[in-house]
Amino acid sequence: MVESVGRTAEQVLRSLVAPRPTRQRKLLRWLRHRHLAATSSRSGVRTSRSVDRARVLLEEYEAWLRGRGVWWDARVRLRAAAPPALAASELELGWGLLCMRPIEKGEVVVRIPRAAAFTATAVLVNEGGSESVADCLKARNVADDLWIFKEDGDCQFPLATAYLLARMQPAWYPKLRGEVTPPSCPLAWVLGATSSSSSSSSSSSSLPRYIGWAERADSLDHSTPEALVGTELEAPVARKRQRLRHEYEVFREVFPEACCSREDYFDACAVVMSRVQPWWSGSLVPLVDQANHAWGRPHIEFRRKGDFVVGKAVRNIIPGEIFQSYGELSTADVMYRYGFAPIARTSADIRPLPGDCVTIGVTALEQAAASAASAVPQLPGALAGRSGSLAERSRLIAAAGLLEESPWDGIDGLLGIELSASVGGVVAGLRELLAATALLTLLDDRWAAAAQAAALQGDSHSDADAVEAAAAAALRRALLDAAGAVGEPTPRKRARHGGAASSWAAVLPADLGWAGPLARQAAMVAVQHRDLRYPGGRSLKEDEAAFDALQKVPRNGAPLASGALQLRIVERRLLAEAARALSEMSK
What we know:
Layout: H1 2-14, H2 21-67, E1 71-72, E2 76-79, E3 96-99, E4 108-113, E5 118-119, E6 123-126, E7 129-132, H3 133-139, H4 144-147, H5 157-166, H6 173-176, E8 192-197, E9 204-209, H7 234-254, H8 262-275, E10 283-284, E11 292-293, E12 300-305, E13 308-313, E14 320-324, H9 331-338, E15 357-361, H10 362-374, H11 387-399, E16 404-405, E17 415-421, E18 427-428, H12 430-440, H13 444-459, H14 464-483, H15 491-497, H16 500-507, H17 517-531, H18 540-550, H19 558-585
Parallel strand pairs: 11-14
Antiparallel strand pairs: 1-4, 2-3, 3-14, 4-13, 5-10, 6-7, 8-9, 12-13, 15-17, 16-17, 17-18
Helix pairs in contact: 1-2, 5-8, 7-8, 10-11, 10-17, 12-17, 13-14, 14-16, 15-16, 17-19, 18-19
């Protein structure tokens, strides 16, 4: 009301025919002061109410924790999520653990009993009695791969189902209520993009617009969002979308009375994915899922000991936020499971994480080999156009353990060479890439001899590892023979690397004489073609400029938007470094 009156009076004053300037300015200042004072008063009331609600929520949650037998040291405090207007940082928008007084390394500061952990075996009460979700799924003949928890799997169905059915039940409401366990988690991706021009650059930067896969169920298809095309998350996200749709149909068939939308189920899976612990066949454990992640050295480590989860200080802790580690995760892992990436204020701050890699698939390797060979006329009837022959070679190369399988759950039959950052900035995987292209471009007679030797040696073994080792030995021998090399490193050197796949780089000579010009050219083509898979036609520098521009957009989906670009930049830098290394080899 005050705001309306203030504007009306101001308009009246401005409409006077011949106002006295000094008096008008004083009156305008007085009206504005009244308006600001009233607005500040209303804001203060809202803030005070928000603080009161947060305090009551924290007290209720702590009472529930103590009732379940949870113990935490008197020097540790829970921090409830702060209202947006009071949050000093993004971190304070969520829950956290705080250290109030110094804690020494080795001290136990948190102990959580199994009774406080929410699992799919939690008993739910309904009109027909009580039973656990796990028992219900088993009784209704739901497929084992949906209701049996697998630590290395990517199925949230049993726990997400239990979460949806139990979140309003009195026994679990204090833990599962939206203010404590957020009802959604932004783990998925863009469905569109917008472009904007940067005034400081002659080139335009595309700023992706992000919405989650849990937000728009009707538009969720099996394709990959544009921001992830070409990245290591392209296939996993497409497969995840397909799997989520199937799981929801099963959920609706088994629990028609639940009245949960597809969006509700997708949100529940995202919540579970970002918080699930492997203990007790998959669980949401209080305090553990409220301690935030730190890159580098964490303060606390949680481990299961019998029927308890114990949190112990792994170093001296000074007053402030207590951080744990979510594990040694790559940029793709942390984006997929948690929806954020390491903090980077500019593109210059982006660094690869352990495990960051970019895969050159077997199809790209075959195409690169055919492309390189087609430019060599002196090889009559060489490899150009002989895709069937290349596919046969790829199968034997895979059998020899040179190609890596995709580590993502549900992605089967996707093979390739992984390039990753190594110590000193050297790209790991280049020798394997050269070995693959050298074998794919090997002359027909040499290849035929190698394939025959691999078959003969493989037939004499029944063990799969022995067959793989025999194939690997035959192909390595073919490469060395083609290069005129003599002998191989000693078995002791191979043993240090262990396994057929990991021993390829160790066994082949260090001088790369076995990788001829044609193999190097094919490897370069493979790297260049892999970089062209990223859509938009932008260069790496333009991607970096887009990332820098996105950091200036305040809280506009920043974790997902910058994270997706960050992943793309990490991968493209690896490819650029690989291309530079291959170029140096060719000089």
